[in-house]
Structure formats: structure tokens, C-alpha cells
């Protein structure tokens, strides 16, 4: 407040200057160094961020093989997309992989975070150990898991036969592929999410737990009645990031099956939306179609983020109060306009 | 204060202008210095010594040098990106056996007929030479290596199964695929778990590689639903139904494992499989493998090309380089490293190639492949062969993993192909 008060006289001076038209360009020029200083980011963003985004919209209305002429096809790519069974299969695959990776992953992460929070010895060691999978190269991880799950001579199958179970052809069966990919995703991200949860847990005041203990709450009750509700914003964050990541799964199926010619693996069991996009754009040079798939994916991610936010974000009370506040605001605005324009009451009734 | 700011702005603007000038917006130039011809190829596609020699000076083009860039990862994507950018395009590029997918954009490359390629036509296998020429008779690509096919087999396992063991006898025992399957059954009885292919698509592709027709005719009619394709399909399905496939899908670690642990005891493969398969994956089987003419006849799978882009600084020098690199003498050297099988029959008698191979028990395996390469009838690859082949292979896999019957998979494959071809406007 003090600062703005001190500035007030200068501000008045500049307003009076502004009324003089000859002085006007000066203000922009004064700000130019600042603009120039922040421009590198915006220039790079415009070239490598904004341009590709807008170009891909333009591209999705064309048929283009990458070298020759782009031909305008209007909405044909999108109508082909909607009737493309493989595209729908890739969506189903992605959602299945997402569910069977994210749900166990977040539950496990929560449990691990809770254990880490209560750990008394080697805390840093455990935290680092759980985080390491996340900074390991996904390609390397996938290759290792590819060997673990491989049909004939995989470690997992060797283990299963040694305990008397039948071999399962993990990487040939559509659901086996999904389990394998979901396992890789979960293995990489459980530790990361656990660390995020841990940060959330440490922010919860120990007074609450002590009070609960005094009231005779069991550890189980403490977890479900105190920890989980207070962690809500953190849970929302991890869910949204896992959703965005989960809908964009690509590397796993690319590394597992990319060299086989069919990027989705046997029966397209591991064909995700992004791998289908990649295969169309860069495998069969259908850049227009690839762009259309990209935009379909965008719509899907927006949709799921909204659903997540609605499900987990903010309590019902908060949303209700917000809605009520908006209703009051609208009422006031309506009254004001009604008062202002006496003759147009019929339109305001809407 | 104002002055320095102005100076600063002028400098910034000047710098930006210089930067945009350097990137050469709109200029149509090729990559590299004026006396340097840039060559793009993937790892293991050219002989290092020869390229090092041309980097000092191209034989036959005084004052010009070659500068090789090995493009790792997704070669085709990078090449397409560079061609789409219309600037800093390499002068000479390697193209793989999907050379026909570039035919619709053949105008991006120089017509080698015009540079006098026909002078060298007699040196090359006729079918290989034709693969680089578009249906409009534009010679877009110059032959590099080939991939003749033959039957690889484990002599020791054949002996254990009481089967013929010498290459000539094995070839006589299995002239056709039917005989080969019968042989496979005997192998499996004697040594349980034995397989004669790693997976269903391998067998299909090698059967297809023997045919004089593929998916389309040169004038653009789709024939991928014809009897010749269906027969190759049915053959592959039969091998799987007889339990003679190892069900190790391409690109999986299993595909190597079935060679390493000796499940794959006989395999119709291209010459490059010798290196990729047994030599890399099962070095301990040294001396146990033999090669003999494949059941079903000679075939070819794989083999690459060189092309000169239209951005090339000096087409004559570039042409001098590719004809020198692909001469019979130099192709024989490229066979030693990185094991590229020559497309020039004169190389097959080169002493550097004809030596006995200890991995194959001292057999002169080049003779077998040379014979296959010379007798192979040749075929036509259309620009859409990969668009057609991918769904067919994917549906074959569905049969092998048991999720579809052969009839259903065939119907689905044809439906998918029809959809894809309609979309790209090929039919």
C-alpha cells in the first residue's frame, strides 16, 4: 500500500503527459528493453510451441505425405477418424492401460508415502530409492521389462513355471500386453507420486493427529478420516498429472513393438492413441491424419481433466457457494441493467 | 540513456536479421561446403574404408569430397523432414527396400537415366536394377545391396533327427514348402520344441519374397486379394497349425532367444539373417549351421539404394561417386563389412567373398546366395506395399496368437486394406 501511495504523484504526472499526443510513442519505447529482455522465450515459444500447434490445426484439414503438395480435404480426416475402428481401439486400449496403471499406482503411492512419513531410520535413503525409477530412462526400463515379460524365456514365466503355474504369453495376448505396459508405467511413477504425497503429508499439522489420538482414533481411522481428506488437493494434482501422462503413453509400446512393424504389438493390444498417431504420421506418412488424431487426443485430455476436477477438486460445499455467489452477481447485474434501461424489461427477463 | 537504448535495440534488430539471414529462408540449397557432397545413410549401410577414401576425394570427380552423416534412429522421418524443408537437403541419400514409397515424389530426385546410368546396367542384377525405376520410367534410385534368401539349418539337429545333413541332400529333400513342412514335423518329433520359423509373419514374408507378383500391378491395380497372396497366407497359417512356429514375434527379445537356445533349427531367411540371427544371437553354435537353396525357390527380401536429390550441387560428381561405390569391386569389399550382399554378379567370384565361412562349417555360403540372387525372377513393389502389407501381417499375428480364425483374419485384412487404399486414393 505504501508503495502505491508513493507512486501516485508520478502516476498523475504521466497521465497528464499522456494527454499530449506527441509524447505517446515514448512510453512504448521506454518499455522496449523490458520487452526485448523477455522476448527470447516468446520468440522460441512462437516458433517451437505456438506455430506447430496452429499449423497442426491447418494440417488436419489436409492430406499430406510430407514431401508433395498438401491437398485440402476439409473435414474428411475427422470423419474418417470417427469411423476408424483402429482409432477407437487405440482409445479403449489407452483407457484400460490408464486405469490398470493409475489406480493401483496411486493407492500404492499413498501407502508408501504414509510408511515413509512414519519411518524413523534411513528416511533419505528410502525416499531416494523410491524416486530412482522415475529418473531411469524409460527406454531402458521398458527393455528390461520386455525381457521379464517375454513369452518363451521371460523371467516372469520362468518364475511361474518354477512354482507350478502355466506359462502366460504376456507379450502376445492383448490383455497381457496391457498388463505389461501398465506395470512399467506404475513402476516408474509410483515413487514419484509417493514423494508428492509425502510432501502433502508433511504439511498436515501433527496437532490434528495428536488430537485424534487423544479422542481414541485408530491409525486406520486417522488415515481415512484425516490424512485422505486433507490430502485432497495433492491427490487431485497426482490424478490430473497421471491422467495426462496416461493418455499419452507411447514409449512403452514403441520400445516393446516398434521394431516389429506393428507398433501396437500382436492384435494391436498395446496400440495407444499416441502410438497410433505416430504410426500414421511417421510410419505411413499420413501427416494430415496424424494431426487429426492429435486434436482428438487434445479433446479427450480436456474432457478427462474436467471430469477429474469435478470428481476430486474442491468440496461440494465450495462449488455450491461459488454457484450461489455467481447467481447473486447475475441478479445484481440484471437489476442494474433493468434500472438503467426501463423500456427493455422484457429482454432482461431471460 | 536514450542513446544506449537505441543502440541496444539496433543491435538486437541487427542480430535478429543476421540470424534469419543465416538460416537462409527460402533458399534452395544442399547441405555442406561447395566442394563437399553430403551423403546421408543409416548405420551399417556403407563400407567405412570406401567412404573414408571418398572423403579425401571422389575418384573420377577431381576436387570433390564426400561427407558422410550417419543418421541414427528414424532415418525415413528425418529424410522426409529434410526434403519437406526444401533447404539444406543432403546431396546423396540412401533409401531402403521401401524405395517405391518415394515414387509419387520421384521429382525430388534426379533421373539417373539422364546422368548416363544405362552404361552400367549390364553390371547389375536385372531385377534389382528395375526396382529403382518408376512405372513412368524415371530412374530414381541406384542399386546398392540385395537380400537373396536361402534355407539356414542346424546340421547337428538334422543329424539327430536322422535327416539328410549335407546341403545338397537337404535341398533335394525339400524342394517345395510341403516337403519342408514334412521335414519340420520329423525334426519336431526327434527334438521336441523345434521350430522352422520364428513366427507367422516371417514365414509369410519369405514365401511372398519368392513370388514374381506382390500387392499391385505396375499400372496400379490391387492384386493383394489374389490367389498368390492367399497361398502364401495359407502356407504360413499351416506352419503355425502344425506347431512349427516358435511364436516369437518380430522385434521381441524372444526372437533372438529362439536362436540362442536352439529352438529355431531351420529357417528360410535372407542373407543378412546370417549376421543378425545365429552369428549375433548364438555365437556358440559356430560350425553347426549350413545354408542350402530354399524350398519354394529363390527369393529376395531387403536391399537398399542410393539416390541423388534434386538439390544436389554437382550431379556429375555425385553420380561418379555412386557408380564408384557400387562397382563390383567395391561391393565385394562392402560384403566383408558391413555384410552387404552385392547386386553386381561380378562380385560373386571375387576372392574376398568366396572364402569358406567357419561359422557355417567352412561352407562357401556366398555361392548359395549368389545362385538365389541370379535365379530370382524379380517383382514389382508399389508405393503402397507397406500400407497393404502392414494390415495383412497384423492379421496374421492375430491368427498365431489365437484371437482370430484364418478366414476371419483374411476378411478383416482385406477390409482394412481396402479402407486404407481408398483413403490414399490408390484405388
Low-confidence stretches of chain A: 1-18, 342-350
CATH-wise, what's the superfamily of the largest domain in chain A? MetI-like
Largest interface: A-B, 39 and 42 residues
* H-E string of chain A: HHEEHHHHHHHHHHHHHH
DSSP helix count of chain B? 17
Average pLDDT figure of chain B: 91
Radius of gyration of chain A: 28 Å
How many domains is the backbone of chain A divided into? 2
Tell me the fraction of residues in β-strands of chain A, as a range. Answer: under 5%
CATH topology of the largest domain in chain A: MetI-like fold
Spans of chain B of 5+ residues with little confidence (pLDDT < 50)? Answer: 17-27
Main sheet overview of chain B? 5 strands, mixed
Q: Percent range for helical residues of chain B?
A: 40-55%
Strand content range of chain B: 5-15%
Task: Describe the 3D structure.
The complex is a heterodimer of chains A (350) and B (427). Chain A is mainly alpha-helical and 350 residues long. Chain A has two domains: 2-60, no CATH class; 79-348, MetI-like fold, CATH 1.10.3720.10. Helix content of chain A is 76%, strand content 1%. Chain A is built from 16 helices and two strands. In chain A, strands 1-2 form a two-stranded antiparallel sheet. In chain A, strand 1 and strand 2 (71-72) form a beta hairpin. In chain A, helix 4 (85-118) packs antiparallel against helix 11 (232-247) and helix 6 packs across helix 8. The two termini of chain A are 42 Å apart. Chain B is α+β, with helices and mostly antiparallel strands. Chain B has helices at 2-23, 48-56, 75-85, 126-131, 155-160, 167-173, 177-190, 200-208, 227-241, 253-260, 273-281, 315-325, 328-336, 351-354, 365-375, 385-400, 406-423; strands spanning 36-41, 65-70, 92-95, 142-143, 145-146, 149-154, 266-270, 289-292, 305-308, 341-342. In chain B, the strands form three sheets. Chain B has a five-stranded mixed β-sheet, with helices on both faces. The interface between A and B is large, with 39 and 42 residues.
